[in-house]
Amino acid sequence: MTGAPLLSVRNAARHYQSGETVVRALDGASLEAHAGELIGIMGPSGSGKSTLLLICGLLEPPSAGEIYIRDRLVSYPGADLDKLRGFRRDHIGFVFQKANLIPFLTATENVSIALEIADVEARAARGYATQLLGALDLGHRIDNRPSRLSGGEQQRVAVARALANDPPLILADEPTAALDSVRGRQVMELFRRIAVERSACVMVVTHDPRSLDLFDRVIELSDGRILSEPSQPVQAHP
Ligand SMILES: Nc1ncnc2c1ncn2[C@@H]1O[C@H](COP(=O)(O)OP(=O)(O)OP(=O)(O)O)[C@@H](O)[C@H]1O
C-alpha cells in the first residue's frame, strides 16, 4: 500500500496496574492503516484487541508510543484526549458490541443527532440518516424506537450512526457479535463498501472467521503484540 497512512501507531504500549502486577494489555504495537482498507483485528481473548482500538480511537492514551492521524501526532503518554473531542467526532466513527442507542429517539433520530451535533441542518440530517438506514436494510424501521427493534436491528442503527459524519476512520469492536450470520455478513459487506466507496479506513475486531474473505488484511494480536507484519496482505481483493 502506497501513500501516507491515515493512521499510524508507533510502538504503542498500554499497561494497567492490577494490584502488585502490571498487565501489559498492549506491548509495543506498530501499524499503519490507509484510506480504503478494511482491516480485521483478530486474536485470542485478552490479547489486546479492544485496547488497541481504544488507543487508535483516541479514547485512551498509550502508556508509551505515539498515534498519528494524517501525519498529525494526536496521542502519546499523558495526552489530554478531552481536547480532541471535536477531532474525534470529525475523524473517527465507533461501533461497539452494544448499540447504546438513545431509548426515546427513533432510529432516524438516533442517527441524525450525530449530524446535528456536528451542526448539520436538521432536515438534511434526517434525510441522510434515512438514506443510511435504508442502505442497512432498515428502511422499514426508521420511525421505530430502539425498544421496537431487534438486537440486530439496533446494532445496524449504531453502525449507521457511526457512519453519519463520514469519518475517514471507523473502528468497530465485535460489531456483528449480536447478529445472525446473514445480518452479520451484511454489516461486514457494508463496511467493505464504505471502505471502497468512501475511501474510509475500517478496522474491525472480530472473532468470526467467516468474514475473512472481505478483509484486505488481518492484524493478529497475541499477548499485546502484533504477530502479523504491518501491510502484509492476507488476500487480494478486487
Ligand atoms: N482497564 C483495565 N484494567 C486492568 N486490566 C485491563 C483493563 N483493560 C484491559 N485489561 C487487560 O488487558 C488485557 C487485554 O484486554 P483487551 O480487552 O484489550 O483484550 P481483547 O483481546 O479485546 O479480549 P476479548 O476478546 O476477550 O474482548 C486483558 O488481560 C485484560 O484483562
Write a concise synopsis of the structure shown.
This is Putative ABC transport system ATP-binding protein. This protein has 238 residues and is of the alpha/beta class. It has helices spanning 49-56, 85-91, 107-117, 122-135, 151-163, 181-197, and strands at residues 7-18, 21-33, 38-42, 64-69, 72-75, 92-95, 169-173, 201-205, 217-222, 225-226.
Could you spell the SSE succession in H and E letters?
EEEHEEHEHHHEHEEE
Main β sheet profile: 6 strands, mixed
Instruction: Report the average pLDDT across residues.
Output: 90
CATH class categorisation of the domain at 7-101 and 162-226: Alpha Beta
Summarize the SSE layout with pairings.
Blueprint: E1 7-18, E2 21-33, E3 38-42, H1 49-56, E4 64-69, E5 72-75, H2 85-91, E6 92-95, H3 107-117, H4 122-135, H5 151-163, E7 169-173, H6 181-197, E8 201-205, E9 217-222, E10 225-226
Parallel strand pairs: 3-8, 3-9, 6-7, 7-8
Antiparallel strand pairs: 1-2, 1-4, 4-5, 9-10
Helix pairs in contact: 3-4, 3-5
The structure holds adenosine-5'-triphosphate.
Keywords:
single chain; 6 helices; 4-stranded antiparallel beta sheet; 238 residues; 10 strands; 29% helix; globular; 6-stranded mixed beta sheet; binds adenosine-5'-triphosphate
Molecular structure report:
This protein is α/β, with parallel strands linked by helices and 238 residues long. It has a domain at 7-101 and 162-226: Rossmann fold. The protein is built from 6 helices and 10 strands. The protein has a 6-stranded mixed beta sheet. A 4-stranded antiparallel beta sheet has the order 2-1-4-5. Helix 6 links the parallel strand 7 and strand 8. Helix 3 crosses helix 4 (122-135) and helix 3 (107-117) runs parallel beside helix 5 (151-163). It is globular. Mean pLDDT is 90; it is low at 230-238. Bound molecules: adenosine-5'-triphosphate (ATP). This is Putative ABC transport system ATP-binding protein. Pfam families: ABC_tran. GO terms for molecular function: ATP binding; ATP hydrolysis activity; transmembrane transporter activity.
